[in-house]
Amino acid sequence: MAAIHPLTPGSPVYAALKLSAIGGLVALRFVLARRGRAKQEAAGEQTAPAAPERRPHPVSAKKKRRRRRG
């Protein structure tokens, strides 16, 4: 009698393990990419000035004309 090998290609157990391994690699790459992006943003924030310049709120042309008249 032949032994049953659940990890032979084509078996459902083999397919499930292969899919979970590929999913794990994709998840690991995603996590490492987010971590790298977070480190770059943190480094960028340290070199940025403390108080960025603020632009005044834009005023429509109609309101500008009204303010000039009165």
Give a description of the structure.
With 70 residues, this protein is mainly alpha-helical. It has a domain at 10-48. The protein has helices at 12-47, 61-69. The longest helix has 36 residues, at 12-47. It is elongated. The mean pLDDT is 81.
Quick description:
By secondary structure, this protein is mostly helical.
Number of helices, counting only DSSP H or I runs of 4 residues or more:
2
Helical content band: 55-70%
Strand content: under 5%
> What string, H for helix and E for strand, traces the elements in order?
HH
Coarse shape: elongated
Q: Detail the poorly predicted runs.
A: none
Largest sheet: none
Q: N-to-C terminal Cα separation, in Å?
A: 103 Å
Mean pLDDT: 81
- The tally of beta strands, per DSSP, is 0
Structural class: mainly alpha
Radius of gyration based on Cα positions: 30 Å
